[in-house]
Amino acid sequence: xxxxxxxxxxxxxxxxxxxxxxxxxxxxxxxxxxxxxxxxxxxxxxxxxxxxxxxxxxxxxxxxxxxxxxxxxxxxxxxxxxxxxxxxxxxxxxxxxxxxxxxxxxxxxxxxxxxxxxxxxxxxxxxxxxxxxxxxxxxxxxxxxxxxxxxxxxxxxxxxxxxxxxxxxxxxxxxxxxxxxxxxxxxxxxxxxxxxxxxxxxxxxxxxxxxxxxxxxxxxxxxxxxxxxxxxxxxxxxxxxxxxxxxxxxxxxxxxxxxxxxxxxxxxxxxxxxxxxxxxxxxxxxxxxxxxxxxxxxxxxxxxxxxxxxxxxxxxxxxxxxxxxxxxxxxxxxxxxxx
Length: 339
Known about the structure:
Blueprint: E1 8-12, H1 16-27, E2 31-35, E3 51-52, H2 63-67, H3 69-79, E4 85-86, E5 90-92, E6 107-110, H4 111-117, E7 127-131, E8 135-137, H5 139-152, E9 156-158, E10 163-168, E11 174-179, E12 182-185, E13 188-191, H6 196-201, E14 210-221, E15 230-232, E16 237-242, E17 245-249, H7 253-263, E18 271-283, E19 289-292, E20 299-303, H8 307-324
Parallel strand pairs: 1-2, 1-13, 2-9, 5-15, 13-20
Antiparallel strand pairs: 3-8, 4-8, 5-7, 6-7, 10-11, 11-12, 14-17, 14-18, 15-16, 16-17, 19-20
Helix pairs in contact: 1-5, 1-8, 3-8
Pfam families: DAO
GO molecular function: oxidoreductase activity
Keywords: Oxidoreductase
């Protein structure tokens, strides 16, 4: 057992991870209060490229979580009809000599087959990794749907309410949080506040080694149907999000725009609409930090990179640990006490 089951939770952070924890815990019968300084998904969640898949992730503590990401989102779709998920598959390639080995659920395609999937490509690559089970989500839309689902199961939601401190009793056990609007009580507090998690833990003597990592995201106007899958190359991650809109995750807006125009037929009219620079939480070793904080009874941390990819799985597993008191082996390599 991790600790006695918690039936009274305060979740700090209504990004996609906090919203998922709140939804799954409320669905499991817990009394849940979700608190956020802004609106659901309005922080770094909104700046995510939001690719749901496992390409390139073959080892590490979270490899198992990532391997289940698509299945967990299919489960969530069944629970929350209308969840904004698109299962387009993904194509990945680079300029190195020779194709890599295909991983689970993947196929190596030749140029002719790649051209059938992305017919607008000017020069289809000699090979590409095709992962038909991959997809992408509207990250803010998914977060809003999770919050609505939590509310439907009885959760209280306090938005535009910054949390200023975690409260403890004289024995050092968590009893809730202090906000700009007053006190919110709870026997367990889940910190799912992205880069702000470290600052909330520090006054408690808790070190959460997570640093802000810039994540540029570009929105482009483009012809309808220019890109049909999630495309991953050395130049960009790219996908179509509306009839005349693309989003790209890359380093430079100018280089990205030039690369898109040179990669696809009919892309001469593609133009940059906006640039956003999100601040994703990057743990010191790149792996999720998920679990109870031993030195502060009642405190639980859930902060990670690839939050959108992992949110459906992590929300379910964290809820099981907190509400049922079980120990989830899939989270074993992600514990805060590894630092």
